[in-house]
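Hi Prof. W.,

I finally got the AcrR family transcriptional regulator prediction working! I wasn't sure whether to trim anything, so I left the full sequence exactly as given:
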Amino acid sequence: MKRLMLATAIRLMQEGGSPSVSEVAEAAEVSRATAYRYFPSQAAMIQAAVDEALGPILDWQPQDGDAEKRVADLFGFAYHRMQAYEATHRAALLLALDQWQRRQAGTLGAETRVVRGNRRGLLKTAIDPLQAQIGKAASERVTQALSLLFGIEAIIILKDIWGLEAKEAEKVASWAASALIRQALQEAGEGETPAEPGAGKTGTGGRKTRKKGA
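And this is what came out:
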């Protein structure tokens, strides 16, 4: 019964909706009492639907020892799946933004939060070999930067704002990811430490001087 509910929720979201538990129950021809027993709130249902849509992405494991190749493999594997369930991920993002707004207004109450953070573990796994080359702090910075390129937010920017097709969006994201990794390796090779925002001394012409490594 739970699988039927999830499949129905995903189908309705893929059709462009953001269904309530009651709407999914009606579409699945399940009683409301049964539906709410599995999913006590819309947020809980959408969270489960997103996890179902992500599916094999969450089980991804690298097959290479090179960080850049691992990231390219992850992007190629994940982008196809994310775009196949794009409407579902957009619905989850919409709910997460709505929850943020209600939390700011103090009206969210005890509603289950939509948790969005699977990319953190996936990206850390992908670039794990990089840490030995550039250090822990720089590796963390690269992971944070890559998170801007991986997920529904990046897909929305590339498709809605730039008008790219799915394959082109994936290519741009993968290219940018490779550029980030190569830049991090270059900085490590030159013994440079990227300055923290607002840090560093002001030199001639108002430019901040970079610290050199030992």
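The mean pLDDT is 90. Does that look reasonable to you?

Thanks,
D.
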